[in-house]
Amino acid sequence: MSTARPTGAPAPGQLTFVAPRRAKPARHLADLTMAERRAVVAELGEKPFRADQLSRHYFERLNGDPELMTDLPAASRERFTAALFPRLLTSVREQTTDGGTTRKTLWRLFDGALVESVLMRYSDRTTMCVSSQAGCGMNCPFCATGQAGLTRNMSTAEIVEQVVAGARALAANEVPGGPGRVGNVVFMGMGEPLANYKAVVGAVRRLVEPAPHGLGISARGVTVSTVGLVPAIGRLAGEGLPVTLAVSLHAPDDELRDTLVPINTRWKVAEVLDAAWGYAAATRRRVSIEYALIKDVNDQEWRADLLGRLIKNKLVHVNLIPLNPTPGSKWTASRPEDERAFVRRLEFHGVPVTVRDTRGREIDGACGQLAAAE
Question: Average pLDDT over the chain, rounded to whole?
Answer without folding.
Answer: 92
